[in-house]
Structure formats: structure tokens, C-alpha cells
Amino acid sequence: MKARTVPIMKIDDATARLEALGNRTRLQIYRALVRAGRPGMPVGRLQVKLKIPASTLSHHIKTLVSVGLVSQVRESTTLICHANYDAMQGLVDFLVAECCADESECKDAATAA
After folding, report:
1. Looking at 14-75, which runs of residues are DSSP E strands?
2. Which pTM value belongs to this model?
3. What is the model's pLDDT at position 7?
4. Domains of the chain with CATH codes
5. If you write DSSP's letter for every residue of 18-31 in order, what string do you get?
């Protein structure tokens, strides 16, 4: 069986995603969606859970959607937000891809991550 190759994230994409998560409110939103799992969470429930005004929540979700960390699906009258786990894994992979690459004793630790 062939090993799956993971595409390397472009530095501009990583920068945009890290910048989006660098805001406290957006990080709280994203963490809540990650915790919600694959079913996601309705925007209304997210608003109540995090105690964020609707207009503020909408603004921050829009930013997370624009960098690919969150997607939204309309189910009848309800808007459901989902964390994009592939994007999250890609960002983590990007951050650890060259862990200790210039330090010979640490190479085994980098492959374990």
C-alpha cells in the first residue's frame, strides 16, 4: 500500500490562517466548532454558547470561512458552521514539517509528530 502524501501548505495560506486564529474571539469560535465535531454547530447555538453579539459573530465567522478554516451549510432556516479538519491538519502539518530539520539529534522527534 502506498503512503499518502500530504500536500504542503503554501506559506501565504498558513499566514492567513494563523492570522485569523490570532484573534481571541475567532479562536474561541474555532475551538467551539472543533469541539462540536463533524455535525458542526448552528450559528444561533454558537452565539449563545460564546455570548457574542450576532453581528460580531457573523464578522468573525466570515473571516474564518474566507481562510478555509470553517464552512457553512444551510439546513432549511438554520445555518450550520463546521470546522474544516483538513485545513486544521494541514496547518499543524505545516508547522511541524521541518521541526528540528537542522538539528541531527532531533530528527526522530520530528517524524514522531
Report:
1. 41-42, 70-75
2. 0.82
3. 63
4. 11-112 (1.10.10.10)
5. HHHHTSHHHHHHHH
